[in-house]
Amino acid sequence: MYIVTAEEMYKVDRETISTIGLDGKILMENAGREASKEVEKRITKEETIVILIGSGNNGGDGFVIARILSEAGYQVKAIQVAPNEKITGDAAYHKEVYRQFGGQVERYDEDIIDTVLQEADVIIDAMLGIGVRGPLRGDILTVTRQVNQQNAYVISIDIPSGLPADEGSADFQAVEADATIMIGAVKQSAVCQHTSSYYGEWIVADIGFPEKLFQAHTQRRLWTTARFKESFPKREVNAHKGNHGRGLIIGGSDPMPGSVLMTTKAALRTGSGLLTTASVKNVISMIAGNNPEAMYIAVPEADGCIAGINHIDLSDYDAVAVGIGLGRKEATAKAIFPALLTFEGPVILDADGLYHLKSYLTDFESRQAPLIVTPHPGELAALMDISVPELLIEPFRYSAAFAKRYHCYLVLKGKHTIITDPDGNQTVESSGNPGLAKGGSGDVLTGMILAMVMQSETIFAGINNACFLHGKSADLLVQEKHSEQDLLAGDVIQGIPEAIRTFS
């Protein structure tokens, strides 16, 4: 499932018509029919349905939906919120078809629209599509405000009217939908923090756009259950522990022993073949009994923090995770980071590791081996010297810029986690729930990424699958025995086996 900007979607649509030869009227019919199927899942024939129809393809979809629902016996009132001269091309064709079927189209009347909307049980928003530029004006703005004041169930077609399809805009007024039926692909703003709430529940209707055109025009996709199943590593009958990765975790300090404990447990639960945790002596004494399956290396320390790792041969390991519970003392970073720069395997940096990374960014820029960074928005904003609001307005652009410049894999954590590879390919993983908004959730994810990167055919697939399992574990736990309030990071670790059994 692809994620597109408005321009990318237009290119796919144009080339489907001009190159593939699929007529625009057929695409509009397909869109209306598929959207109608989704609408019918959410309404009853006892409810009064008002369809607000604008110009362009979105309005044309509205005429098709009005015809199909009317023919199916639903109580439909079609309101055209655009001048007749603006209804042209394929939309005009489908308006006429609707009328030939006996459908009635009422023109927008500002004197009665408020009453019409108040009497509606369901409002279908087919006023504006993905081509919105700038703030709403005139009748569309008035109707949008009125729709948002109603208690009716609101379904938007393709995109809530007034909402930009792309990231990057904060100045807009838009319909606040309860559900959105997107046509062909996910629109970028559906997975951006400041715009996603306008969509409500969303689904994507497949109307026949060729897969190859999406592949040609966008580098963004959703990481779905199907992609997880395709890429999740399967163990061979004769496999042994050495086949599934020798991982090293470097972290922990006297003030923060719990972080590295959770990372260690999560890596083991996610299938790491051999796992070693390097930390200060007190931390090891506290956590070793809880993780007898792991091995431990005590490191030199100063004031309860790591002060050296020179006695560890990093070449013995396939991947290293660094930063969990590390602390922010400069001496700690100096004791660890120079060795990481010469390590030839993947390095995963999280938590305090990201804090220290800023001083070493230039050094890592020239490092050839893979670097994986897992910041939340505040951490990435600090690394890029921008504000968090700036980042959240354009998370895709900033993520791609950072990943390309520093040749790294970037996991920008959030409700819609954006994962970017060094070439700018991006996926979004949207599982999980607010129960993950607690200390320790990121430590668990780091351990899972370490384990999956060592077991997967590609680093990118490993990262995506770790994020997928992390969110799905939380979702299953909340569905079955926990609430979002009481869910703990340690519970997520215990939920990993069920998530693997359910989805793999």
Automatic annotation (TrEMBL):
It catalyses: (6S)-NADPHX + ADP = AMP + phosphate + NADPH + H(+); (6S)-NADHX + ADP = AMP + phosphate + NADH + H(+); (6R)-NADPHX = (6S)-NADPHX; (6R)-NADHX = (6S)-NADHX. Pfam families: Carb_kinase (PF01256), YjeF_N (PF03853). Residues 9-215 form the YjeF N-terminal domain. (6S)-NADPHX binds at residues 57-61, 129-135, 158, 325, 376, 443. The keyword Metal-binding applies. Transmembrane segments: none annotated. InterPro entries: Carbohydrate_kinase_pred_CS, CARKD, Nnr, Ribokinase-like, YjeF_N_dom, YjeF_N_dom_sf. Its EC number is 4.2.1.136, 5.1.99.6. PROSITE patterns: YJEF_C_2 (PS01050), YJEF_C_3 (PS51383), YJEF_N (PS51385). The keyword Lipid biosynthesis does not apply. Keywords: ATP-binding, Isomerase, Lyase, Metal-binding, Multifunctional enzyme, NAD, NADP, Nucleotide-binding, Potassium. Its cofactor is Mg(2+); K(+). Residues 224-503 form the YjeF C-terminal domain. AMP binds at K413, G414, K415, H416, T417, G442. It comes from the Bacteria. Binds 1 potassium ion per subunit. K(+) binds at N58, D125, S161. Catalyzes the epimerization of the S- and R-forms of NAD(P)HX, a damaged form of NAD(P)H that is a result of enzymatic or heat-dependent hydration. This is a prerequisite for the S-specific NAD(P)H-hydrate dehydratase to allow the repair of both epimers of NAD(P)HX. NCBIfam families: yjeF_cterm, yjeF_nterm. Homotetramer. In the C-terminal section; belongs to the NnrD/CARKD family. This is Bifunctional NAD(P)H-hydrate repair enzyme. It comes from Oceanobacillus locisalsi. The gene is nnrE.
